[in-house]
Each structure stands twice: as structure tokens, then as C-alpha cells.
Amino acid sequence: MSTPSPLRQRDFRLLLLGQTTSQFGAQVSGIAIPLLAVITLGASALEAGLLAAASTVAFAVIGLPAGAWIDRMRRRPVLIAADLARAVLLATIPLAAVAGVLTVTQLIVVALLTGVARVFFDIGYQSYLPVVIGRDRVLAGNSAMETVRASGQFAGPGLGGWLTGLLGGAVVVLVQAVTFLVSAAALFAIRTPEPPPRELASRQPARGRLRTEIRAGLAFVRHTPALRATALTSAVANFCFAIAAAVSVIFMARMLELSPSAIGLIVAAGSATVLAAAAVTPWLSRRVGSARLAWLCLVVTGPAGLLIPLAEPGWTAIAFLIVGIGAGEVGQIIYAIASVSLRQRITPDELLGRVNATMRVLIMGAFPLGGLAGGVLGELAGPRATLWVVGVLTLLAPLPVWWVLRGTRDVEELDPAGP
Fold first, then answer.
1. 2: which DSSP letter?
2. d(CA 295, CA 337)
3. Radius of gyration of the chain (CA)
4. Which of 401, 276, 275, 394 is nearest to 343 (CA)?
5. Which residues cross the membrane (predicted)?
6. What is the DSSP string of 198-220?
7. Domain ranges for the chain
């Protein structure tokens, strides 16, 4: 049976507005910052890898305690504070550029600190969405949010590449700073009452209690096969993405001899089908099964990634790049909706922050490792060989989820204690 559209809810529309602006800004500056590092500041493959790693290393360092802290408090104030912090940090980049003192080191430091704010936002947001929309509608809500992200992927890189070529990457970063302010204002306007966190009965000291709370989140993930499998599949996929991110701009700019605007357009073209994929995920979930969809989407789209390292200078061969990027994005966006919705459905509310944190640490911890591995591989073997490694690893990513969910059609059939 179809679920009523979440867009009928005012507060969900506000949440969507904030995510629309911030995701669009992220996609615009997402292409601008690597171009700024590689083209304007002359970053090496290793420096590009460090930049990619810096934005996600915070998940490995503070992700688990952040989840426990978030379960102790209302989530909306945390989200607003995270947005404001990221806006201020990003604004330092154009200021330093105007002053003539911008360096790759500053880009890495800003990426590191905004990554800390992102930890709190991402964990808090995934725990806050069920409050706004209700647990029974999380798949529809996640689909709408991912549709927004996909629209930013389609328009953002092309605009970001064009603006970078026109104005310079440092100025373009200011766009994202403004979008975080819009997101904070939208969150502030939400009226849905958020219940207070459950009182903790334990009388342990704060430090001991924190360890106990973290262990509870870890134990739930460890004893839930579906969560273990999605964590492993997501970690491998993110590891591959981070390796590719460390060398893809160098591959396109130096080996394929593409301009910033052309790179932005190619990334946008490769992401064009993602918007439709996110929008039809609820329909696919009903036809294929909400649990089965989590592995099937990756199995179908993964092989196209082998086309990317085949690209050569010239627009005919670059079609391989567009198809490879597009197929990978389609598979990942459907998988993200299916896997996050699965997690939100089977996790008790009082554990959701800690389980989200545990999953994000396991998943996002792969990003800095992949960024560093990509930088090292890029230096030793070159960008093309590195992208071949990514293509092969991508084929293996869905195996854990397939193994656990192969006999299950829908999430409702799952027992948290078994497959």
C-alpha cells in the first residue's frame, strides 16, 4: 500500500528546504575545493588525498561519543549549531584568498573542523527525521531527501565548475557557507515538538556512563546481522569512493586535459539519472522488496564503474566516464535510501543516536583511509591504475548485504537478532 507523501507536512518541507540549499551548496563547493587545491594551489596527489581524508577523519575520532551525547539531548539544537559552525569555517577560505594567504594547509584544517560539525549533524539528522515524519514513513522521507541531494548533484558540479573557472574556487566556497545559514534558519522554524531524551537510570560517573552507552550501541550493531552487513558493504563502497576522489580531479584535469567547467559538466552529466533514481526508489522498494533492493541495486550498477579508467582525451571516450559515474551514483543513492531506512526501522528510538553513530564511524572511517590510499596509489601507480583498483573493489562491495539478506524480501520480515 502506498504511503501518503511526506511533503504534506509543513515541518518536513522546512527540513527539506534546509537540505535543498545546503546540499546544493555542498555540490557546488564540492567540485570547487578540489579544483582550488589542484589547479590554483598546485596540490599533489598526496595533498589531494589528505584533503579528502581530512573531511571525514572526525567520524573515526569522535563518532561514537557523539552518538551517546546526541541520545542525551534534543537533536534540533545540535543540527542548528552544526550548520552555523560550518558556515563560519567555510567563510574563512574566501577571506584568506582575498588576503593572499590561502594555502592547502588551511583547506585541510577547514575540512577537518567542518568534518567535526558534520559528525554531529549527520548523526543527529538521521535520528531527527523519524521525529518529524514518523517511523512508518522514513523510506518516503529518505527518498525525498535523496532526491534533493540528487538534484544538487545534477546542477551543482556543472555550476561549480563554471563558477570556479569564472570567479575562482575560493569565492565559490562562500556559496556553501550561505546555504548552511539557510539550513539553520529552516531548522529553527520547525515546530514539531521533540520529546526529551529518556532519563538514564544509571548512577555511574559521567565517564563510565558514556562508555556504557557507547557499548550499548556497539552491541546492538554487532548482534544485528543486517546492520553488520550494511556497515561492511557501505565501508567498502566509501573506501572506493574516497580512493577515486583523491585522483579523479587529477585524472580529468591532467590526463584527460579537461577545463574546470568541462569537469563540472561531466560530473553533472554522470549524475543526471540520479534524480530519477532517488524519486523512484519507493516504487522500486514495493516491486522488488525493501530489503532485497539494498543489494540488488549495487549488483546491477557496479560493473559500469570499470568504464571510468578506459576514458581517454576526446569526447567520444569520455562518454565512458559519464556512464561509469552515472551508474555508480544511481546504485549508491538507491542503496543509501534502502540501507538507512532499514536501520531506522529496526532500531529502538532510545538507541538510534548511538546506532547511527556506530554505523557512521564504521562507514565513514573508510573515507580517510581511502583518501590516503588513493593519494599513495596515485603517486606510485598513477591515477588510471588507481581507478582500475576502485572498479574491481566496487564489484565486491555488495557481497555482505547479499549474503545476509538474500532470502529476505522486505524489512518488515527482519528480526534484529537474525537475518
1. P
2. 12
3. 21
4. 401
5. 21-42, 48-67, 88-121, 166-190, 235-256, 262-281, 293-311, 317-340, 361-381, 387-405
6. PPP---S-HHHHHHHHHHHHHHH
7. 9-191+214-413
CATH number of 9-191+214-413: 1.20.1250.20
Positive or negative, the CA dihedral 20, 22, 26, 28 is positive
- Measured CA distances, 20 to 104, 179, 197 (Å): 29, 9, 28
Q: Rounded to whole angstroms, how far apart are CA atoms 356 and 346? A: 12
At a CB cut-off of 8 Å and minimum separation 6, what does 314 contact?
none
- Chunked mean pLDDT (size 10), the chain, 419 residues: 66 81 66 74 77 75 79 84 90 87 87 85 80 75 70 57 63 80 90 69 51 84 89 90 84 80 72 74 86 90 88 76 84 87 82 82 78 84 89 92 87 59
Confirm if 295 and 304 have CB atoms less than 8 A apart: no
pTM equals 0.65
3-state helix/strand/coil string of 351-411: HHHHHHHHHHHHHHCHHHHHHHHHHHHHHHHCHHHHHHHHHHHHHHCCHHHHHHHCCCCCH
SS (H, E, C) 227-293: HHHHHHHHHHHHHHHHHHHHHHHHHHHHHCCCCHHHHHHHHHHHCCCHHHHHHHHHHHHHHHCCCCH
Question: What contacts 47, CB < 8 A, 6 or more positions away?
Answer: 37, 104, 108, 375
In this structure, are residues 233 and 400 in contact, taking their beta carbons and an 8 Å threshold? yes
Give the long-range contacts of residues 143-148, CB within 8 A, separation 24 or more: 143/278, 143/279, 143/281, 143/282, 143/337, 144/6, 144/7, 144/12, 144/16, 145/16, 145/19, 146/278, 146/281, 146/333, 146/336, 146/337, 147/275, 147/278, 147/279, 148/16, 148/19, 148/20, 148/23
Cα–Cα distances (Å) from 64 to 204, 214, 352, in that order, read 18, 6, 12
Q: Assess contact for 337 and 146: CB atoms under 8 A.
A: yes
The cell 593572499 sits on which residue? 100
pLDDT of amino acid 163: 63
Supply the DSSP string of 37-99, one letter for each residue.
IIIIS---HHHHHHHHHHTTHHHHHHHHHHHHHHHTS-HHHHHHHHHHHHHHHHHHHHHHHHH
Residue with cell string 549533524: 121
Cβ pair 389, 290 in contact under 8 A: no
